[in-house]
Specification:
homodimer; alpha/beta; Lyase, Ornithine Decarboxylase, Chain A, domain 1; nine-stranded mixed beta sheet; eight-stranded parallel beta sheet; globular
C-alpha cells in the first residue's frame, strides 16, 4: 500500500527516521556509559517498545499501570512506573504485574511506599523503588533536604521493596540550547547537593535516573546521572525542533491531512483539529500555532476546532488547494498519538506496517 | 457499585443533571418551533444519541463518517454530517451510509457537491445537502454574496441530491451574555442579507440550521433559523459556565481524580493531566487554567503534564491531602470525553451504567 492510498487524517511514522533516532540515542548512551530506559508514553505501541529494547534500551518507562500491563502482555519484562500509585485497586494491579515482570516504581511519599511495601509483603513479591527528588520542575519529588534523605532511608528499609536509588525529572531544563546550558549549572548544584546528602547518610544509589528529550544529548554532563528516560526522541516533534534538540529531518511522525475547505479568504481548513493533533501548545517563542506544515513554512495553524485545523495562508505565495494533502509535524507528538487507535509505519511512499496504539485509553 | 468503588481517573456523568439539560433544551425548542439536531461529537455514545432522539431531537449531527457509522449501527436513522467530504474513500462510505439511513451533508464548495452528486447517482441513492455560509466565524462556509447564492442554486440542481437549505455555524457568538447580545445584532444583519439574496434568486430553504451551546437559548432571536445543533449542552463544561450559558449545577460531567503527590510546597498533583482532561484552553477571561475543581474554587489547575494536573493551592485554606479524591469540571468536555474509552453514568453516589464511547477514535 502507498501513502496515497490512505484516507486522512492519519498518523504516519517514517520508519527510517525513527530507527535512526533510536540508534543515535543508543549510540550516545553507550558512548557515555548511560543506561537508556525510554518512556513509552510517547507511542504506547508494544512493537516499538520491543524495538527500543532490541536497540539497546535496558528496560522501559511507563506512566500508568494499564500501559505497563499492555507492555508486559507483549513480552516486555523490565518496567519502571514513574507515577505515584495509591489505593487498593492500583496496589492489587501492581502486585499482579510484579508477579510476572521485574518492575519498579518512583515514589515521593513514605505513605505511598509503605502501602506498596505492605501489599508486596502480603503478595510475596518484590517491587523496585526509586525515590523521586524535585530538582526544580516543581511537579512531584521530595525537596533536596536532610529530612527528605531521611525519608528515602526509611523507604530503603521497608520490607519487600528492592532499593534501586533516586530519580528526578528535569522537565524545567528546556528552552533553547543556550538556555538549557544556563539551567544545567543550577541543576548540577542541586544534583551535587543531593549526592552529598545521600552519601552523608550512607544511602547508596545504584541508579540516579533523569533525562528528558530536550536535554538527552547533554545527559553525560548531568552530575551523577546513570540512566535517562527520554520519550519523544523516538519521533521528535515541533517542540523538540524549537528546543534545538532536533531538526525537521529528524521528525519521524507526521499527520497526513487534506484541505477540506478553502472558502474563507486567507485561510484553508484541513481535517486535523484538536481531536487529531491535540491542542497542546508550542512551548517556545511566542507559543503560537499548533504544528508545522511540511513544505508550507509560511502557513500558520492559527487555531484548532475539534476537527478543523485553521491554516492562515495569507503569507503563502501558492496556498494549498482544496483536496491537496499536507503533512503536519505536531507540537507534541505524545498527546497526538494518544488520540489515535493506530498509526502507519512508512518507508518512503510505502506503507509497510500498521501499529495499534495498544496502550491508548489506559488512563488508570 | 458506588462512585467510591471506581478507580481514578474516570469520567462521571450525573444522569439526573444530564436528563434535565436535555429536557430543558427540548422544551425550549418546542416552545419556539425550532428543530433540535444535537451534535453528538460531544459524547460519541450511541445510547445518549438515542436518548436525545427520545427526548425530542429530530435527528443528530456528527462530524465524521466514522461517527455516523457508529450511530447508524445503533439504530439512529437521521444523520447530518457537518463536515466537507472529499475523496473516493469518503464518498464510498457516504454512499454505504445513505443506503441505510437518511443522511445529509453540509457543503461549501461546488466541487465537493458535484463529487457527492456523481457518487450518489452511480450508487442510486439520495443525499441531503445544505450549503454552508460563513456568518463571521471564518472557518468553513461561502461568503454571503450573490455569487455564493448562485453556487447554492447550482448545487440545488445537482442530480441525486436532496436540497434541504442552508447552514451556518455561529462559533463566533461567544463571550458573556452581554457580549453575545452585541454580536447577535451583526449576525442578524448577515442572516437577513442571506435570506434576501436567497429569496431574490428563488432559492427556497426548508432548513436554516445554526446554533451552538453558548447561544442556544437565544436561538429564537436568530433571524430565520429553523434548526439548532448544540452539542455541549448535554453536559456543559467550564467554558459554558464562563460564557454564562450554564451554572456549575448544570455540569453533568466531571472527572474523578486523586491527589497523587503533595511533596512540592504550594501545589498538589492529581492524576488528571492533558491525556485525561485535554489541554483545550479556557476561552474567556484571562484564559487561564484547565478546569474547575469542585469544592475547591480557590485551587487553580495551573498546568497540565500528560498525566498530572498541577494544582496551585497557595490560596486554599485547607488544601486537598494526598489520596483525597476530587472532581474536576473540564474546560471543554468534548475533547475530554474523546480521550476516554468509557464513562460512568451515576445517580447520586451510585454508578448505574457504563457507556462505551463508541465513536472515539473515528478520526476519518
Amino acid at each position: 500500500m502507498k501513502i496515497s492510498d490512505l484516507d486522512t487524517p492519519a498518523v504516519l511514522i517514517d520508519i527510517d527516521v525513527m530507527e535512526r533516532n533510536l540508534q543515535n540515542m543508543s549510540n550516545y548512551c553507550a558512548a557515555h556509559g548511560l543506561r537508556l530506559r525510554p518512556h513509552t508514553k510517547t507511542h504506547k505501541i508494544p512493537e516499538l517498545a520491543r524495538l527500543q529494547l532490541r536497540l539497546g534500551a535496558s528496560g522501559i518507562t511507563v506512566a500508568k499501570l494499564g500501559e505497563a500491563d499492555v507492555m508486559a502482555d507483549s513480552g516486555v519484562n523490565d518496567i519502571l512506573i514513574v507515577y505515584p500509585l495509591l489505593g487498593e485497586k492500583k496496589l492489587d494491579r501492581l502486585m499482579r504485574l510484579a508477579e510476572r515482570v521485574r518492575c519498579a516504581v518512583a515514589i515521593d511519599s513514605l505513605d505511598v511506599a509503605q502501602g506498596i511495601s505492605r501489599a508486596a509483603l502480603t503478595a510475596g513479591v518484590t517491587v523496585g523503588v526509586r525515590v523521586e527528588f524535585d530538582t526544580g520542575f516543581g511537579r512531584c519529588g521530595l525537596p533536596i533536604t536532610e529530612d527528605s534523605v531521611e525519608t528515602a532511608k526509611r523507604i530503603r528499609e521497608l520490607a519487600s521493596l528492592r532499593w534501586e536509588g533516586v530519580l528526578t525529572y528535569p522537565g524545567h531544563i528546556m528552552g533553547t540550547a543556550a538556555e538549557r546550558e544556563i539551567l544545567l549549572a543550577t541543576e548540577n548544584n542541586r544534583l551535587s547537593t543531593l549526592k552529598e546528602l545521600l552519601d552523608r547518610q550512607g544511602v547508596d544509589c545504584e541508579v540516579v535516573s533523569g533525562g528528558n528529550t530536550p536535554a538527552a544529548y547533554i545527559s553525560h554532563r548531568f552530575k551523577n546521572v546513570t540512566e535517562i528516560r527520554p520519550g519523544t526522541y523516538i519521533f521528535n516533534d515541533k517542540n523538540t525542533v524549537c528546543a534545538e534538540a532536533a531538526t525537521y529531518r529528524d521528525c519521524a511522525a507526521t499527520v497526513l491531512t487534506t484541505v477540506v475547505s478553502a472558502s474563507v479568504t486567507g485561510k484553508v481548513m484541513v481535517d486535523a483539529g484538536s481531536k487529531t493533533l491535540s491542542a497542546d501548545p508550542l512551548l517556545s517563542g511566542l507559543k503560537l500555532g499548533y504544528g508545522e506544515v511540511v513544505n508550507y513554512p509560511d502557513a500558520m495553524i492559527e487555531d484548532l476546532s475539534e476537527e478543523h485545523g485553521h491554516l492562515n495562508v495569507r503569507k503563502v505565495r501558492n496556498p494549498p488547494k482544496l483536496g491537496e494533502r499536507l503533512r503536519i509535524v505536531p507540537n507534541h507528538i505524545c498527546t497526538c498519538i494518544n488520540l489515535h487507535d493506530r498509526v502507519y509505519g512508512c518507508s518512503g511512499e510505502d506503507v509497510v506496517v500498521q501499529w495499534e496504539v495498544k496502550g491508548r485509553g489506559e488512563v488508570q
